[in-house]
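Subject: Sanity check before I submit

Could someone independently write out the structure tokens for this chain? I want to compare against mine line by line before I put it in a report. The sequence has 90 residues.
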Amino acid sequence: MRGRPLNRAIGSLLPGAADPFFVAERVDSRVSGYLSQGYGVLVTTGGSGRLSTETGSSILIKRGSTVLIPHAAGACTLAGDVQAVRCLPG
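---
Independent answer below. Compare away.
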């Protein structure tokens, strides 16, 4: 996938041909709570927990939360029971 280390614990929601343009991937903190560095939007679809950034910020999230993650936040981690969709540019 063009060298980008994405969290592929659950998998992409789009066909591989879309990857150069847009990426939407499922994430589940029970499988892997690691989110690689990159600009993106995290839409929480289930559960609740905490999103923490490499720079030390953190926020409580729950089903329905939508969070913009700037590239400058670094790698992030999800703690708790969080299921989400992470959207990234390709």
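---
OP: Matches mine. For the report I'm noting this point. The chain has one domain: 11-89.
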